[in-house]
Write a structure and sequence with these properties.
With about 170 residues, the protein is α+β, with helices and mostly antiparallel strands. The chain has two domains: about 70 residues, no CATH class; about 90 residues, no CATH class. About 40% of the residues lie in helices and about 15% in strands. It has a three-stranded antiparallel sheet, covered by helices on one side. A hairpin with a 5-residue loop joins strand 1 and strand 2.
């Protein structure tokens, strides 16, 4: 996605040219890591038109939706990995890792994306309504009372993070 961003496909600007995708991308510098993806999307094919000449990002999103919609027999997968390294004044280094791998149900069931977004929003809402979260405004889940209970509730829904910590002493 970073390469796609660098190409300008995530900007809300007008598409230049005739409106064919191959003409829109002709003047772009396509980074090596994006070439195979752009080929897979078929943007160089003759006659493939952008869907909204007034917005490159809307047209790109439409292209992604057409090409990447899950089929009836397919399922999605969400992978998350967080590596956090802390170095303390005594020279101790802690390396924390938290990972999640979640598969969608397929065949019309819930997608992994639906679960990770929906359950997280539901857990946050539940915690506000039951009084677990009393602060107001935009909050990040950095308070132990928020993330510990939040992760506990997510685990009940099948969102289980594998966590590890390695401590190196100097």
């Amino acid at each position: 996605m970073y390469a796609i961003k660098k190409m300008g496909l995530l900007e809300d600007v007008r598409c230049e040219g005739s409106g064919e995708w191959r003409e829109v991308i002709a003047g772009m510098n396509i980074p090596g890591e994006a070439r195979a993806f752009m080929h897979w999307l078929g943007v160089e094919k003759e006659g493939l038109m952008v869907s909204d000449r007034d917005s490159i990002i809307k047209s790109f999103c439409s292209l992604l939706e057409d090409k990447m919609t899950l089929g009836k027999e397919e399922r999605d997968m969400v992978l998350m990995n967080h590596d956090i390294r802390g170095e303390f004044s005594d020279g101790t280094i802690e390396k924390h890792q938290s990972s999640l791998q979640l598969f969608g149900e397929g065949k019309g069931g819930m997608t992994a994306m639906c679960k990770t977004v929906g359950y997280t929003a539901a857990v946050g809402t539940e915690m506000v309504l039951d009084g677990s979260i009393t602060d107001t405004g935009v909050l990040t889940p950095m308070d132990k009372s928020v993330y510990e209970r939040g992760l506990e509730l997510l685990e009940k829904e099948g969102l289980i993070f594998e966590e590890s910590c390695v401590i190196e002493e100097r």
